[in-house]
Structure formats: structure tokens, C-alpha cells
Amino acid sequence: MKIQQGTFYLLSLGCAKNTVDSDSMAQLLMAEGYRPLSAPSRAEVLIVNTCGFIAPAREESIQHLRTLARKKRQGQWLIAAGCLTQRYGKHILEQVPGIDGILGTRRWMDIVQVVRQLRNTPHPQPLYHLPDEAQTIGPDLPGISRSSRFGGSAYLKIADGCRRPCAFCAIPLIKGPAVSRPVESILEEARQLQAQGVRELILIAQDTTDYGHDLGMKEGLATLLEHLVRAVPEIDWIRVLYAYPGHVTDRLIEVMANHRQILPYLDMPLQHAHPDTLRRMRRPANIEWVYRTIEKMRRIMPNLALRTTFIVGYPGETESEFNALLDFVRAMRFDRVGAFTFSFEPGTASEALGDPIPPEVKRERYERLMEVQQPISLEINQSFIGKRLDVLIEGHEKGISIGRSYRDAPEIDGLVIIEGEFPVGSIVPVQVSGAMTYDLSAVPLPQSLPVLQAL
Fold it and tell me: Residue 450 pLDDT more than 80?
């Protein structure tokens, strides 16, 4: 199969923030005249935007790089980009011989320069673009978006990097300190997405509640949301992800409650519920604040959907501490819970604690946690039977449509399965007819009926 000159294949791994960077790199290449291909065997330039957050993600990234390196032919160039390369740099070559260029996540905007150098000058050694001092968010380049569209939705990156001290997390090592985009840049891009027909805007950053701190803003996220609802009145849904505990302020709650566009949905990763575990994690340990804040949010927004994530098997986690987490989950009745077993990360503050809890104990605790959450999730889903919801359609086939309600962030939450086929990107009012542990089934309502969210 002949290699097509002036083409590229780009594989994006990891989180939505990586997806945005991948789309930005693709736009830069296309502006240079390159064409994207879905088949790596025919592309001249092969790019893997890697994830390096935890061990399983690193292993996946390395496996994809090895596969492409093994199949690479004369006239093809393989570039490893993203978080894995930013953190481990040249050491990636020890695991994946055959890489021609290494581009860190802080220098994604150099992709065209790297490709030019590879094409025009023979390089016996791989090229490196890994300056540590670069700001990870990158510049707002003319014509290059910092968003990623899919169906009727779009991720919009408002900041990147992190200044939080979490002991288990390698993100500050990879991304550097938090850097916020200017408000007007975000608003202008949101207006462009509105003009393109986007129905849902999903704000992402390592910590959305820290937005604007480096710009000298107070209540930066709340202020940005107020600007957004005025700037893009035709976008139906605005969703907030990655809120840091302790920084969900009264003003943020008030702004969310007072604007219908802003979904009553919040993703607030708590990581644990026992104060001693949280202190070892270097996370906010005031559990009373969590109780008070969630109670306040649920009182002001009765239809609030709350998602969180927990780590089990963190060094020093006793059976008593883990049981406190289970009791907390039972008491709080979260709509959505994600869970992870602790991943030992060299170079983080938790490295000194080691990884003393056996893998089988971590796994057993993970399974017990999910066994507690699953009936809660089912009961909450069953409470929606007979109620009306708006559903944003993501796909359809053979008389069935799949979509998401306000309670469902893409990729991490549930789905709504609807009888009938509806256009991707449309918002359809439905009546919930059935409930599963994570998903709902529904029937469409006549379009003439008023569209209501579940109350």
C-alpha cells in the first residue's frame, strides 16, 4: 500500500484535555496543507498524543507506539507527543525504538516545525521539543481552536496545568502550574461554536474552579459562566467538569442555579472520605465542608446531578478508613461514582509512602465500593421513570437512538436509549420508561409538549 505524501494519522489517548490538544495539532497540520487519514499504513506522518497519568495509561500509550513503530515503513515518521513524553522524555526510546520525534504536551504547537524538520533534513537521532518552562495551555493562535467538537457537543479548554498539592498526582510534573486562557478568547471561541450549531458546551481544565487565579480574578469560574450565558444564548447546555473540593463557592452555586443554560451537574472528585487518608493524599480533609456544601447545592438545585471519584488502596488506608468511605457513599447517595485503585507514581509526593497495599486488596476494595454504589445508582435511575427529560442525541441505528441527559457527561456517565431515530445533535424531549444501573430507556414525547427537565 503506497504512502500518501502530505498526510498524517493522529491517535489521541487519555482525557478530553488531550483530545483538545490533538484537534489543535490537526488544525495546524491541515493549515500547512496536510490531510488527515484514518489508516496509519498510508499516512506519511504518524502521531500518538500519549497519556502518562497512571501506569495503565502509560502502558496503553507505549503499546500503541510499539505497534506503529513495528509496522512503520520507509518514508514514514513516527512522533510521540503528549503527557507521557513530557514526563519521561528520551527514556521513551528505551521502550520504543523507532520513534523519530518527541514532542511534549507543553509544545503541541510545534508540531508543524517538527514535521518540517523530519521531512526536510535527515536525522539519525530523534528530534526533541521538551522545554520545561513552556506554558502548557499554549497560545491562542489565529484560526486554531482550543476546543474539540463531537456530535452536538464540544469540549472547551479554559485552562491547563495545576497548582494543587495532591500527593498521588503527576499532573503538575507533566503540565506545570495552572495557566488560564483570557476571558475574551474563551468567549470568542464559544461564539464560534454557537455559530457552528453546538448544543452543549463542556468546560474543561485540570481544575475549573481555579480558573482565573493566575489572571488575578476572584471567583473566576463564576465570572466566566456569567459572561458565557450572555455571549452564547443559543447554546442549550453549559456543563462544568473537574471542580476542586473546597472551591465550590456560594457564588458559583448561585450562578449555576440562576441560569437555565448551566446544567445542574457537577463533577467534584473527592478521592476519599476519611480525613486521615485525605491528609496523606494532601487533599482537602474537611468532610464537614463536603456535607454542608452538597446539602446547600441540593437545596438550591433540587435536580442536581453530582458525580465524584474515589481512590481505594492508597498507602496507609486501613480497613476502618475504607469502611468510612463506604459509609460516606451510602450517606451521600451520589448520582455517579467513578473509582480507581491507587497507582504508584515515581516522582510524586506519595512516592515516599511506597505501595504497601497488595493488588488483591485494592481490587477487593474497589469491588466492594462499586457494590455499594450500584444499587444507589439504580434507585436514583428508577426515580426518573415516568418523568420527562431532554436528551441530546449522539447516534442512532436500527430504530434506536442513543443520547445523554443533563445528568450524563460524555464518556464517563450513563446513556439514554430512545425508541426511534433522531438526528445527531438534536435535543429530544422524552419520557423515561425504564431504568438500569447506569442507563435509562425512554420513549419520545410529541414535540409540541413543553420540554421539562426532571424535578
Answer: no
Lowest mean pLDDT among 173-177, 207-211, 313-317: 173-177
Report how far residue 34's alpha carbon sits from residue 54's, in angstroms, rounded to the nearest whole number. 32
> Across-strand partners of 392?
404, 427
Dist CA 50 CA 425 (whole Å): 29
Give the predicted TM-score (pTM) of the model. Answer: 0.91
Q: Please, are residues 195 and 187 in contact by the beta-carbon 8 Å criterion?
A: no
Q: How many CA atoms lie within 13 A of 170 on its CB side?
A: 20
- Show the cell assigned to 231: 455571549
> 319 burial class (0-12, 13-18, 19+ CB within 10 angstroms)?
exposed
CA 414, CA 265: separation in Å to the nearest integer? 13
The three cell numbers locating residue 174: 507533566
Write the Ramachandran bin of 282: left for phi over 0, alpha for psi from -120 to 50, otherwise beta. left
Helix (H) or strand (E) holding 257: helix 250-258
User: What is the reported pLDDT for 350?
Assistant: 95
Q: How far apart are CA 117 and CA 344, in angstroms?
A: 37
Q: Looking up cell 478530553, which residue turns up? A: 16
Segment holding 434, helix H or strand E: strand 427-435
How many other β-carbons are positioned within 10 Å of the β-carbon of residue 195?
A: 10
The gap between the terminal CA atoms of the chain, to the nearest Å, is: 57
**Res 448: pLDDT:** 32
Between CA 201 and CA 342 the distance in angstroms is 31
Please report where in the chains the cell 449555576 appears, as a residue: 256
Contacts 24+ apart (CB under 8 A), 289-293: 289/245, 289/246, 290/245, 290/332, 291/332, 293/248, 293/253
Q: Tell me what pLDDT residue 142 has.
A: 77
Pairwise CA distance, residues 152 & 158, whole Å: 19
pLDDT computed for residue 129 by the predictor: 62
What is the CB neighbour count within 10 angstroms for residue 350? 24
Q: How far is CA 351 from CA 167, 344, 361, in A?
A: 8, 7, 19
Average pLDDT over residues 293-298: 96
Instruction: Find the length of the chain.
Output: 455
Tell me if residue 416 falls in helix, strand or coil: strand
pLDDT band at 452 (very low <50, low <70, confident <90, very high): very low
The pLDDT score that the predictor gives to residue 105 is 86
Mean pLDDT rounded to a whole number for the chain: 92
Q: What are the structural domains of the chain?
A: 4-129 (3.40.50.12160), 147-377 (3.80.30.20), 388-444 (2.40.50.140)
